[in-house]
Design brief:
eight-stranded mixed sheet, nine-stranded mixed sheet, 44 helices, alpha+beta, elongated, about 1150 residues
Length: about 1150
């Protein structure tokens, strides 16, 4: 097609683009419209327009075998004409937007209003101003200059509000920036294999251009659209785009269309890339979403819950291949077919994390108390004033006095609001966010890439870890160490001369041809290092075995290139074997097979003897071989692989689809034992886990003897203990009843003792994880972490409380289902994650202990002060400063404590351990008593002690007194020293332990101290401070230091004696309603929400600041699938479900897997078991 004929179709502005396309034989538009076709339509269109895929390759100036030349100018040109392979992200929120969001906080709004009224009144001088008759307190004390300064208080309040807002906004902004950094790091790490200039290279996904020849294999997430050129048995799960859960088989003549964002479930092959970035199918959907989302936001501010997810999909849409960071589609691919489970898995993730639940509850309780206190304060002040003025002194209410009275009332109102401000711990959300963000940043250094923030904290509560064996506990460097060839069992690699030539030739072909051609052994990078293994590690082990036998696999492969393979049965978790069929020169067929020895040997009816002849292999020979060869190998911790072959006639051609008949009557060539050594650091890591109260279980596909041997080496089981090692079959037999249904009570009998589950299918892994999580056998609900690397581990990773995917060996599908990616695939990194998780929890507790002490003291001082002296000893601006130290700074200082090994010496806290333990309660009340005693002493007899004027009963607008300044200063000093006490929450004596390991803490304490000096000495009227002498300062610091001494006194009191102390922030069993019930009834709302409905808690929105802070995190969380996002526009019905499950008050854990009920995936075994389709 000449491009001039096309140009008529396009509007003027596109004309240059099509002439551009003239350099290539097809334009972007043509390719884009071609990719929108499916199946046979596409085949017909390709035939009509282009002839075949080779023609398309020629037109795109690429070679199906050699790939692109890969020269820079050529790649640049392709990027200009066909676009780049990335989708521009949604613009981040600007700083001003974040400021605006921070201003939505209710307490701040109340303060602003009060401040503005106060400002207005101070500038309003009514005629009756100096009318002596107005108010008693107004008399003589005030000279003209002071009256002028009345505006300062209002202004100062406004200023401090601005400070708080800026701090909050800056925090959010830097966090957003951090996440974008994390995002781009994950993006750079995602690579894809393409052929360029005849070389197979891995390039970052964003570098892929139209015309590239990409190699696709099992477990890949396709990064761009393309046409299938050649391959074997390629099956794709396209549910993320079409919602159809059946795997689609791709072939050149039936359905060659490969679409971005879909998963390869089986097989391998090559494709020519035809559309990238915004023009790929995924990109088109994202651009639609981008446009749709903006309108929706305008239209629907109220439906913020649905919106959150649309936002999420846009803001992270950058990475269209849905790399590790972004869940483009909640893992529908490998999800194990049973619907019922799917529904539960969704809800299971929506459950608020343990910490969030406890915090929400605590914050509600504190908020109520604060509200009550502040209301009482205002009422008492107003009553006292009116009674005193109008009843006792019998003053008439004169119209010209009205403004003066109003001014008094405003002052009382401001005092009330200040009490409320101090009572409300708006630092909590901040502390949580800082603590999590800090941990996540540091965990990167410990090889943990956290994708969902709350996973970090959940990990601290983990009670069980179900780990894979290969690659996690072991090094994943496979080497053959034993072999059984020609009736001889060799305990080390045999001498090549001892093996019959015919056998050797068969063995070489069987291993070289019947393995992925992408698997290679390359020379070592450094001198003296081990050769590099590329591709499937088991196959690398076998190829290494050939090299040890002084044979080479390259000539065999070049003689029989991949295109010539007649048929390939790829490895999958059901077959547990791989077979390749080739056509021999005499037109007959030969099939090579390899796989788990007990499975392949069952299909063998002959075996090659020492002379290379096939002899009969009967079942009883097989049993003997299992006993004499396979079990001894397995007991040494080796994986046994059997290599076999079968010759098939050319006519009649066998029915290749009838696998059972084909994969039978094999002839066994040899059995090899492959060693995969345990990683040296694993036994120590497992010991740490066990000491920390975490049970490690091994779930593997290997045979039971191998698994047991490795488990003993790792220290998962100790000889002589009472434990279970089961095989998948036996496990299933024990947990199912007569009807074959799984029963929870049967699982409960098994899991507490189960340590090794061998020969397990992905469904078994999922069943085990689900069984442990749903178990009510122990008084605490088990919190389970799971590691996985294969596509088939998806369901178990999703179901677990925390899913770890392997960064190196893991498939994209596994990474997408996970919460944390282990960048070094190492089990000992999981221990680090546990440490950080516990640290987050402890940091929050430290902060709470500090904050609540300040809260209790400040509220009581303001309240009693107001009742007795009609004025709070701590002024509004001072309170706001104290609030700033308490909230923002303290949360920074205490939330960034680095973790120590001691965290691993205690058992996990569990779900119903209260946030504030008895020891902490003792500390809070103890310190509060000390502080209150001293402050009241200073308030009532302070003027006598320091020989200064009393500050009590000062008239409105009187100058700040030294007396009240001393009280304020002492109060702050005590907080500073108490901050050091707060570093320990388990009643330790040495509070300075490791203080210099936390530079942030030291900086903040010293910084606050410096600012305090400035405020007192130069704060003047705005801060109601008057400068103090040196000796007065010394007293303040001395009283502050008393906190440390007092801390030691408190530590001496045994907590066990103080039975009357209540704990707080506990999640009761009642709130642990099983999530299923919650979802069935939309009206079922948790307590906090019900309170919210009554509108009692104004400040609750303050807590909801979490929501803004975690807006970024949502993006990580909500697997805003295409489908999820599209559905959101199309079907209202599904929205009600989404929202029902989203209505947790702090809206933190946005739904993780919004997969629609329509897209039910097939079961892992290939036949969907539909149990409870909604």
């Amino acid at each position: 097609m000449g491009d001039m004929t096309n140009s008529d179709f396009y509007s003027k502005n596109q004309r240059n683009e099509s002439s551009h396309g003239g350099e290539f034989g097809c334009t972007m538009e043509e390719l884009r419209s071609l990719m929108e076709l499916r199946g046979t339509e596409a085949v017909v269109k390709i035939k009509e327009t282009y002839g075949d895929t080779d023609t398309i390759c020629r037109r795109l100036k690429t070679s199906p075998v050699e790939g692109l030349p890969g020269t820079a100018p050529d790649l640049e040109k392709r990027k200009q004409i066909f676009g780049q392979n990335f989708i521009p992200p949604k613009k981040p929120k600007t700083f001003l937007q974040l400021v605006w969001e921070a201003l939505q906080d209710v307490t701040l709004i109340i303060l602003e209003i009060a401040a503005i009224i106060s400002l207005g009144l101070s500038f309003y001088h009514p005629p009756g101003e100096n009318n002596e008759g107005c108010a008693t307190a107004q008399a003589g004390a005030e000279d003209e200059g002071e009256a002028e300064a009345g505006w300062i208080e209002g202004a100062a309040i406004l200023l401090s509000v601005i400070c708080v807002v800026l701090v909050t906004a800056f925090n959010d902004w830097s966090k957003e920036k951090q996440f974008r950094g994390l995002q781009s790091r994950i993006e750079q790490e995602q690579k894809f294999t393409v052929v360029r200039a005849g070389q197979v290279v891995q390039i970052p996904v964003a570098e892929i251009v139209v015309g590239d020849i990409a190699q696709v294999k099992y477990g890949d997430l396709l990064p761009a659209d393309g046409l299938f050129i050649q391959g074997n048995d390629l099956k794709i799960d396209e549910s993320s785009l079409t919602g159809e859960s059946d795997q689609v088989r791709k072939s050149v003549d039936k359905d060659p269309m490969l679409l971005s964002g879909t998963h390869v479930m089986e097989g391998s092959g090559r494709m020519v890339v035809t559309a990238v970035g915004v023009n790929s199918q995924t990109g088109i959907i994202f651009t639609l979403l981008g446009a749709g989302g903006e309108e929706e936001e305008k239209k629907d501010k109220k439906g913020k819950m649905q919106d959150g997810n649309v936002d999420a999909s846009q803001s992270k849409a950058k990475q269209q291949d849905g790399a590790a960071a972004m869940e483009m589609q909640p893992l529908k691919s490998a999800e194990g077919g049973d619907t019922d489970d799917k529904k539960k898995a969704n809800m299971h993730k929506k459950e608020k994390s343990v910490l969030q639940g406890k915090l929400t509850k605590l914050a509600v309780q504190i908020g109520k108390a604060g509200l009550v206190m502040s209301a009482i304060t205002v009422i008492i002040l107003v009553l006292y004033f009116t009674v005193d003025t109008f009843v006792v002194n019998k003053k008439p209410w004169l119209p010209e006095c009205t403004p003066v009275y109003v001014q008094y009332f405003v002052k009382f109102f401001i005092i009330g609001v200040t009490v409320l401000v101090v009572a409300v711990p708006e630092g909590l959300p901040l502390a949580v966010t800082i603590s999590l963000a800090y941990s996540v940043k540091k965990m990167m250094k410990d090889n943990n890439l956290v994708r969902h923030l709350d996973a970090c904290e959940t990990m601290g509560n983990a009670t069980a870890i179900c780990s894979d064996k290969t690659g996690t506990l072991t090094t994943n460097r496979m080497t053959v160490v034993q072999a059984y060839v020609g009736d001889v069992h060799y305990k080390e690699i045999p001498d090549p001369s001892s093996i019959n030539a015919k056998t050797m030739e068969l063995l070489v072909s069987a291993i070289a041809i019947n393995s992925a051609y992408t698997t290679k052994i390359l020379p070592p990078e450094k001198e003296g290092a081990l050769p590099r293994q590329v591709g499937n590690k088991t196959e690398c082990g076998l190829l290494g075995f050939m090299l040890d036998l002084k044979q080479d696999y390259e000539p065999v492969r070049s003689q029989m290139p991949e295109e010539k393979l007649y048929k390939v049965y790829t490895f999958n978790s059901v077959r547990k074997s791989m077979s390749t069929v080739i056509k021999l020169p005499d037109e007959s067929f030969r099939m090579y097979s390899k796989g788990a020895s007990e499975i392949v040997l069952k299909k063998c009816c002959k075996i090659l003897n020492g002379a290379g002849e096939a002899r009969v292999f009967r079942p009883r020979d097989r049993d003997e071989m299992v006993k004499k060869v396979i079990e001894p190998m397995a007991c040494d911790g080796l994986r046994t692989i059997c290599v076999a072959y079968r010759d098939l006639p050319s006519s009649p051609e066998p029915d290749w689809d009838n696998e059972n008949d084909i994969l039978n009557e094999l002839t066994c060539i040899c059995v090899v034992g492959i060693e995969d050594p345990v990683r040296p650091e694993v036994p120590e890591a497992i010991r740490k886990c066990q000491r920390a109260g975490i049970t490690v279980r091994m779930v593997t596909g290997d045979n039971i003897n191998t698994a047991r041997a490795i488990a003993i080496k790792c220290g998962i089981i100790h000889p002589g203990e009472d434990f279970l090692c089961l095989e998948g079959k036996e496990f299933n037999r024990r947990i199912r009843n007569e009807k074959g249904e799984i029963e929870q009570e049967r699982i409960d009998k098994i899991w507490p003792k189960l340590r090794v589950l061998a020969r397990s299918s992905p469904t078994d892994k999922h069943t085990l994880v689900k069984g442990i999580i749903d178990s009510t056998h122990t008084e605490q609900r088990q919190v389970v972490a799971v590691t996985g690397d294969g596509t088939n581990d998806g369901p178990a990773l999703k179901k677990a409380d925390v899913g770890f995917a392997m960064g190196i060996a893991g498939t994209d599908v596994a990474k997408e289902a996970s919460d944390i990616i282990l960048t070094d695939d190492n089990f000992s990194s999981i221990v680090k994650a546990v440490m950080w998780g516990r640290n987050v929890y402890d940091s929050i507790s430290k902060f709470l202990q500090f904050q609540l002490t300040v809260n209790v003291v400040a509220v009581i001082v303001a309240f009693t002060g107001a009742c007795i002296t009609q004025d709070s000893p701590l002024k509004a601006v001072q309170m706001l400063w104290v609030n700033l130290i308490m909230d923002t700074f303290a949360s920074l200082a205490l939330a960034t404590e680095p973790p120590t090994e001691t965290l691993l010496l205690r058992k996990p806290y569990g779900r119903n351990k209260p946030l504030i333990s008895r020891t902490m309660m003792k500390n809070i009340l103890g310190h509060a008593v000390y502080q209150l005693t001293l402050i009241f002493t200073l308030l009532f007899v302070g003027e006598k002690m320091f020989q200064i004027d009393s500050g009590r009963n000062a008239p409105l607008h009187s100058p700040p007194s030294e007396h009240y300044t001393i009280i304020f200063n002492t109060f702050v000093m005590m907080q500073l020293f108490n901050e050091i006490n707060a570093r320990k929450i388990h009643g330790e004596r040495n509070v300075f332990d490791g203080i210099f390991r936390n530079p942030i803490f030291c900086t903040i304490v010293l910084g606050t101290f410096a600012i305090q000096i400035v405020i007192v000495q130069f704060g003047g009227k705005p801060f109601s401070c008057s400068p103090l002498q040196l000796d007065q300062w010394m007293w303040c610091i001395f009283i502050g230091l008393g906190e440390l001494v007092w801390g030691q006194v408190i530590a001496t009191i045994p907590t066990s004696r103080l039975k009357f102390l209540k704990e707080a922030g506990r999640l009761t069993q009642k709130e642990e309603i099983p999530e299923e019930e919650l979802n069935e009834d939309v009206e079922e709302i948790d307590h906090a929400e019900r309170e919210l409905r009554r509108g009692q808690i104004l400040w609750f929105r303050g807590l909801n600041r979490i929501q803004t802070q975690i807006e970024v995190v949502n993006t990580f969380k909500s697997g805003a699938s295409f489908q999820g996002a599209l559905r959101r526009q199309s079907s209202v019905t599904s929205q009600s479900q989404d929202v029902a499950s989203l209505s947790s008050p702090s809206r933190v854990s946005l739904s993780n897997a919004l997969s629609s009920p329509t897209s039910l995936p097939p079961a892992a075994a290939g036949h969907p078991r539909r149990e409870g389709v909604p």
